[in-house]
Amino acid sequence: MLRASGIPWDLRKVDRYESYDEFEWEIQWQKQGDSLARYLVRLSEMTESIKIIQQALEGLPGGPYENLESRGFDKKRNPEWNDFEYRFISKNLPYFLNYRNKNFT
């Protein structure tokens, strides 16, 4: 609401939060102070977020990524987990979580 009311203030710029000062981005703000201004601020924040992500991706070192700690884990069903099933699967890729409850079959 503050940025939609004509005050270009952002904690990431003021306190140099995390690594935001390493990227080129502008504080998005509107001066009208109504719900349309808040909506426009949110839309322009999404555009600025994409710019920050693109700059961060350009700064990543190149080369292939290989997970040298490839391992698998499969927990057997246990009634204390209330029919939840979880698995950690990895084979030269980052880990991901496969979550399903009993209604997702």
Describe the structure using short key phrases.
3 strands; single chain; 2 domains; 105 residues
Structure annotation, total helices:
2
Beta fraction of the residues? 5-15%
Mean pLDDT: 77
Give me the Rg, rounded: 22 Å
N-to-C series of helices and strands: HHEEE
Given as residue ranges, the uncertain stretches (5+ residues, pLDDT < 50) are none
Distance linking N and C termini: 43 Å
Order of strands across the widest beta sheet? 1-2-3
Number of domains as seen in the coordinates = 2
**Biggest sheet, open or closed, and with what strands and sense?**
3 strands, antiparallel
> How many individual β-strands?
3
Which structural category fits the helices and strands? Answer: alpha+beta
Write the layout of secondary structure elements.
Elements: H1 11-14, H2 35-58, E1 73-74, E2 85-89, E3 96-100
Antiparallel strand pairs: 1-2, 2-3
Give a brief description.
The chain has 2 domains: 3-58, no CATH class; 64-105, no CATH class.
Kindly describe this structure.
There is one protein chain. The protein has 105 residues and is of the alpha+beta class. The chain has 2 domains: 3-58, no CATH class; 64-105, no CATH class. It has helices spanning 11-14, 35-58; strands spanning 73-74, 85-89, 96-100. Strands 1-2-3 form a 3-stranded antiparallel beta sheet, with no helix packed on it. The longest helix is centred in the middle third of the chain and has 24 residues, at 35-58. The protein is extended and about 55 Å long. It comes from Brassica oleracea. Pfam families: Complex1_49kDa. Keywords: NAD, Translocase.
